[in-house]
Structures are given as C-alpha cells and as structure tokens.
Amino acid sequence: MFDMTKDRIDAPDVKTSVIFWLAVALSVAQLTVPIFFHLLDLQLRAIHVGLGISLAALVFPFKKKYETNRLTTLDILELLFIIAANVNIYIKTLNIYMYPGSADMLDLLLGIALTVIILDTTRRAVGWAIPIIVAGLIFYALFGDIFPGMWKLRGLSWNFVVNSIYFSPLGIYGSVTAMSATFISLFIIFGALLSAGGGGKTFIDIAFALTGKWKGGPAKAAIVASALFGSISGSGVANVAVTGSYTIPMMKRLGYPPNFAGAVEAVASTGGGITPPIMSIAAFMMSEFLGISYLKIIGYAIIPCVLYYTSVYAGVQFMTLRLGLAPVPEDEIPEWKEILTFRRLSCLVIPIVILLGLVAVGRPLLTAGFYTCLSTIILMFINEIPESGLMKSIKKMIAALAEGGISLARIVPILVSVSILVNMVGITGIAPKISSLIMSVGQDSFIFALIISTFVPFILGTSLPVVPTYVLSLSILAPSLLRLGADAVALHLFFIYWSLLGGLTPPTCTQAIVAAGIAKGDWFKTGINSVKLGIVAFIMPFFFVWNPAFVGRGTPMQILICAVTGFLGAIFMAYGFFGHINSKVNLLFRAFFFAGGVLLLFPHHLYSMIGLAVAVGFLIIEKMVSKKIDLEGSSA
User: Fold this and answer.
1) How many helices (H) and strands (E) does the chain have?
2) Which of 477, 511, 618, 619 is most buried when burial is the number of CB atoms within 10 A of its CB?
3) Domain count along the chain
4) What pTM value is reported for the model?
5) Does a structural domain hold residue 303?
6) Under a CB-based contact definition with an 8 Å cutoff, are residues 603 and 544 in contact?
C-alpha cells in the first residue's frame, strides 16, 4: 500500500498521509506501550481500541463512493467519537473497576456510538456476519421476554446492556480484546516485518531448492513455501497472493491444469493456519485459553499438520505421475549458496529461535513477541544499511511498520466485535441453551453432535478469518462438547480446522477464488479440487476428538500407531482421488481406496487392519487389472 523506499512520497493526499502515520503510530504503540508503560488493563485496551478502530474506519470506507483522497465529514465525526469514547474509558478506568455499572448518560451515549462504529467497521472489513450476530444478541438481551419456550429471557435494561458492553472490563474491552492488544498485535507486526525483510521470497526460494529437481517440483514447492509463509502470515488469502504469484504460473508452464494448480496453492496456503510454530496466532490463543505451555500446543498440532500435508503432497505426486510431468528446469532452481546467506536467512531463523527459546525458558508470550519483533528490526537494519544506506533503511522500516498497522486494522474491529459477542453470549445465557440441544443429541451419538457442531465454524469461516471464527465457536459450542467427554486440546484443534475449511469449499472458497484468478481457471472447479486435495482436513478433526492420540494425547505407543495408520490413510485417500487407475471400474476402485484410507483412521485396531487390508488388496488387484489392460492393448 505504501512505498517508503523511494526518496520521497509522491504528492500524498491528506487521507493517505493520515492512514500511513496512524498505521505507524499503531505499530509503535503496540511494540512499546504494553512493555514499557505500566498501565492498567483497561487503559491499555482503550489505547488499542482507539488507535485500531480509528485506523480501520479510515482504511475501510463507509461506502464505495467515500473512497476519496480526502477526509470526509463522516470520517472526522467517526474519529471524534472513537477518540472521545476511549479517552473517557482511559480517564475513568479506576471508577469502572471500583463501581461497576455506574455509567452516567454521557458514558452511555459514548458507549452506544462506539459500539455502532465498531460493528459498522467490522461490516466494512469482513461483511455482515459478525455485526448481524452481535446485533441479534443485543436484541435478544433487550427483548428476550417475547421469545417462546426455553428461549424466553427476562429482558435486560438498555442501561445494563450498555454498561456491560462499554463501561466494564468486558464487552469491548474484554478478554479477546486483551489478547488483541498484547501478543496478537505483536505477532501480526512480526509477520509484516518478516515480509518486508524478504521472508516471502526466501521461503519460495527454499521451497524450489528443496523440491524443484523432483517431478512435480513447482507444485511441491507451493506446498512447502505456503506452509512456511502461511504459519507466520496468518492469512490464507495473503498467502495465496504472495506465494501463488510465483508458483501457479510455474505449475501451469510445466503442464498442470489451471484448476489443479490453483487448488494446490489454495490448499497449501490454507494449511498455514495449522502449521507450527505460529499457526496464524491460533497456537498462542490456545495456550492462553487452556493454560498450557505454547511449546506443548505446538507438539499437539504436529501430527494433524503432517497428515494434512501428507494428503496434499501425495495428491500432487499421484497427479504428477498421472500427467507425466517433468521437474523444474535446472537453470530456474535457486542455488543453495544464494539462499544460505546471513542476509537471506537471518530475519527468518534468528527471530524464530529467540521466540521459541524465550517461551521454552518460561517467559510470557508478550515478552517473547516483543523481543522477536525487536530482533527482526535490528537484523533488518544490519542487512539494509550496508546496501541501501541509513535513510533508505529507516524509510523501509517505517513502511514495514505502516504495513503492520494496516494488517492490524484488518483484524482489530473483528476481534473487538468478537469480544462484544462473547460478552453477550454470557449475559444472555444463550450458550447453555445451545449446549443443552447438543447434549440431547450427543446422548444418542457423540459423532452426530460433533457433525452438528461443525456448522457454526464452517459457516462463519466462509467470511471470517480463522481466529474470530475459532473464538466464536469455542464460546458457543465448547461447553456442551466438553461435558460429553471431548478432550479439551482435541476440541480446540477441531474448531481451528473447521474454521479454515470455509476458505476452500464452494460457494465461498475465498482462497480457491484468489488462486483461480491467478491461474486463470474456473473458481468452482478449483474449489472442488481443493476439497479433494485437502480431504484429510475434513475428516481428521472428527477422529482426533474421537481418539486424542492423534493430537499427542495418549501413550507413546498409541500416538505412534495413530501417526502411522493416519499417514497410510492420508496416502490411500489421496490415491483414491488422484491416482492413475486404468480400469473400466475406475470409480469402484477409487471408492475402495478412499474407504480403506478412512478406516485406517479409526481408533480401533480391527478397523485399521481392515482398512489396510482393503486398500492394499485393491491396490494389488488394480495393478493386475491395469497390467492386463496394457497387455491387451499392446497385443491389439
């Protein structure tokens, strides 16, 4: 959006300048205030909400016609209300803690105005889904007495509701906002700094150097690069745009159909959200919610992540053999001596080592995130100053901080709205009512209860990023499933996986649509291919709630057995979709390979053995049939 690498900014308009410097201010505030200023929690969150929502209101205009190069009257009014409302909270923090529910008329009016602005800014950023849900819950809180049966609620006063949303350490300034104001912001800024330091290009070069010499090299490079970049970037769409612009044209040039090339990139980029160490911030949030070490969360996520990418990689391999494609031309594969330099690797390796090291010795995520960002800034200066000089390096750093602020502006209104939603779920008591419905279903079938529970994260995930979808799903659905006996870690990962899948599945499939645009393919067919490649992600979550050994929650032998059978199951499922099967009963063979792969995931050893027998048996039969057909063809 902004280019500070030039000697000057070319005649910026007022609005662009305000957005740029406000974005820089937001990044600087998030890097310094939580660490160096000893503020009360509400004061820190008020600064975060004030800067973040102000920037988001400017970045996302009210309507298309307001996308002008000047500040409109509406922009100015919104900024005044946002600033006034958050300054009010900052000043009255002690009063809020000591006398909850004591808002006067001015406080209530500022609270209503700020709530409306936050919800509308969220609408501008990601659409109507969250604002409608929040508005519906507010309506339910105020007029619950008109609802029938178990849904009837004694209506709460508007004074109580606004106090809870605005004039309290809940609602706007609740626990989700607290995470947004601390470690989430730091790691989003880290992602922007990493991109500015050339991280995306380095990931792609590493991927091509690792896989380019093999058949299907560009597709396999897309998998590796997207997994690495997606773990840190946190956005599947951004991941597709960055890595896909390199990998998709290469895949097409070497013979992959456009719809398949786009699907490979879409699936690989989506998987970044479940790839350790960062998992698009979800790992940190899991650690906070569960009170479990961040390093343990990484350990729990490894087997599902490996099985996900095993399925994708196997699908690519089988499709490559089916099409008879060649590797990447040798002269187009980056040489390791060009990649393995301090300049290329320092900003990738050293900050991650610092992050993991600080967490390993027990430092808080906020502290670890700060030193991760600080080390990245220092390394960027060390790398840039000798080549570009001090002034250009400073300008590049300021531009990187601005991009970090813009990235925050995209997520802050969403998370603050989710914080309001979580509060409304609490004060209306709607979660226990939904839980009772799921409990009644789960008494007959736990798996059926899980299937019903996928609807919320899947539908929300079609229009929202992973983190808010995950938090919403947890707040509404987790209590009942935990009472039914679900393992807490497995359940959190279950919701993270299902929060991702809306980005792959038609009709929304945002990642697939972006990838299809780059590949110049059909978005619907790209989405269907994405579902086939990522089929493990649709099936595996049920099995690791059913059998937590899949997420490392069991004895070493149980975990090993699950890892091995899951690995074989992922390969056979991929073969069922993409293997070259030369037979008149092609679909029948594919169905048995897929069924065998699914049976290998079952927790009972008997089912796994049956699955292995079915898959291997039909593989032998398929090869014999194929050989017979080839012999008949050659003799004819």
Assistant:
1) 30, 0
2) 511
3) 1
4) 0.82
5) no
6) no
Alpha-carbon distance of 602 to 146, in angstroms, equals 46
Q: Which of 1, 51, 28 is nearest to 186 (CA)?
A: 28
At 226, which amino acid appears? Answer: S
- What single letter denotes the amino acid at residue 319? M
Burial per residue of 545-574, b for 16 or more beta-carbon CB atoms within 10 angstroms, e otherwise: bbbbbbbbbbeeebbebbbebbbbbbbbbb
The span from the CA of 629 to the CA of 635, in Å, is: 10
Q: What is the pLDDT of residues 528-583, one digit of tens each?
A: 988 888 888 888 889 888 889 999 888 899 999 999 999 999 999 999 988 887 76
AA letter at 10: D
Q: Residue 511: CA atoms inside 13 Å, Cβ hemisphere, count?
A: 40
Please state, in angstroms and rounded to a whole number, the distance separating the CA atoms of residues 254 and 249: 9
Write out the two tokens for 552. Answer: 């490392």
For residue 625, the enclosing domain spans: 581-635
Largest CA distance in the chain: 93
Helix axes 342-360, 185-196, angle to 10 degrees: 160
For residues 262 and 268, the answer to whether their CB atoms sit within 8 Å is: no
Instruction: Specify if 588 maps to a domain.
Output: yes
Band (pLDDT 50/70/90 cuts) for residue 1 is very low
Question: Does a structural domain hold residue 504?
Answer: no
- Cα three-residue angle 332-338-339, rounded to 5 degrees: 95
Residues contacting residue 73 through CB under 8 Å, at least 6 positions apart: none
* Within-domain flag for 589: yes
Phi, psi of 226 (to 5 degrees): -70, -35
Cis? peptide before 507, omega within 30° of 0: yes
Tell me the per-residue pLDDT of 42-84, one tens digit each, with 9 for 90 and over.
999 999 999 999 999 999 987 766 566 778 888 999 999 999 9
How would you class 470 by CB atoms within 10 Å of its CB: exposed for 0-12, middle for 13-18, buried for 19 or more?
Answer: buried
